[in-house]
């Protein structure tokens, strides 16, 4: 077994300083990578002559496996020895592009992904980090910390500020970078500010990501941003787009467990319907606690309707009041949960919530929007919407409100796309400079 010389990431800054290349020998003993059988002797496959040709003011990187190192971080693996040393159960690295990579959510998430917690302990990972012009130094810092963590499954870290570079061949795109809301703002207030980012990122995914790429939109208003992204990426299946409502599901599970005096694990079958906004509907009608109907276990419909429901709908806003910024750690946990739900089979009889495209949905929700519904997966990255949940009048009335809100937002999208399309690169470059914690 052979472990290659190790240094990560192709990133060539434009300033003269950037030609000061730092490469470092692999400090790890040869046997270390072998601690994970599936990746034994399997160094990263660096594509030769990969060109990261940045647009206008973007990074310009020309990295080859044999070139003199150009970047602050530069991979130097001996590819020719790679094939011979692969073990039979070697998995190709999953390429995960993350926007807003220098922000606080990413700072939690990236380390979970690199550790193997998300895609599995036998799945090597290549991380592609997207930031903004203003966050270059911070991105380098993130990459350095990832390097210093010596994750055996982390086979590549690269950083960039142009989605056309960073999304190349992506298997997953986790779109976190966006201007977050501050105290007193609703998520929809961000639509105009953030919509343009998702036009540009959708177009980039369309052009350079794998057509099978799964996209999880976290930047708010995430449902409509996912819609914008999806509409701009016709080469990708519409079923591949998700907006994150797993955080709301987790919040709902926690509150139901606390009320019932049980541990979280016993709460299952929780659906978040609709928009990741104050119109979302956390479904206590179909939820279960210990295999029983949650409504029967809790037996307090007034609490469920008048306390529990608004508590979940407004929890993000309450956190912003307390923290002075939006949730980060729990959001990262829920992104990890959302991915795990797609790459592992859903337990029999259960489901998870994700906001997905409503085309052909079994609940009569307006088509062509991104709406949170109950989903199941066989673990291959795809999902199906779970049919047959009981929708009583209380739920129906509230689900309709969320549907109306999203339909209205969708009506703005074509207008926004036309109005901001030309400006989207500029906005995309600027907006994630305002990520939570990224100053
Ligand atoms: C959350 O739910 O905590 C985040 O989406 C932040 C926000 O704007 O509420």
Q: How many extended strands? A: 16
Q: Which blocks of ≥5 consecutive residues have pLDDT under 50?
A: 1-75, 420-439
Largest sheet: 9 strands, mixed
Looking at the structure, what is the overall shape? globular
**Number of helical segments?**
13
Query: Compounds present?
Result: (2S)-2-hydroxybutanedioic acid
The largest sheet has its strands arranged as: 5-4-3-6-7-8-14-15-16
Overall pLDDT confidence: 80
Distance between the termini: 44 Å
Structural class: alpha/beta
Beta-strand content bin: 5-15%
Order of helices and strands: EEHEHEHEHEHEHEHEEEEEHHHHEEEHH
Features:
439 residues, alpha/beta, 9-stranded mixed beta sheet, 35% helix, 15% strand, globular, disordered N terminus, disordered C terminus, binds (2S)-2-hydroxybutanedioic acid
Your description of this structure?
This protein is α/β, with parallel strands linked by helices. The protein is built from 13 helices and 16 strands. Strands 5-4-3-6-7-8-14-15-16 form a 9-stranded mixed β-sheet, sandwiched between helices. A 3-stranded antiparallel β-sheet has the order 9-12-13. Strand 6, helix 5 and strand 7 form a beta-alpha-beta unit. The longest helix has 28 residues, at 393-420. The chain is globular, with a radius of gyration of 22 Å. The two termini are 44 Å apart. The structure holds (2S)-2-hydroxybutanedioic acid. The site of (2S)-2-hydroxybutanedioic acid has 9 residues, from helix 10.
Set down the secondary structure blueprint:
Elements: E1 50-53, E2 60-63, H1 82-85, E3 94-99, H2 104-115, E4 125-130, H3 136-148, E5 154-160, H4 163-166, E6 172-175, H5 191-208, E7 214-217, H6 222-231, E8 241-243, H7 246-260, E9 267-268, E10 271-273, E11 281-283, E12 288-289, E13 292-293, H8 294-298, H9 301-313, H10 315-323, H11 329-343, E14 352-357, E15 370-376, E16 384-385, H12 393-420, H13 424-431
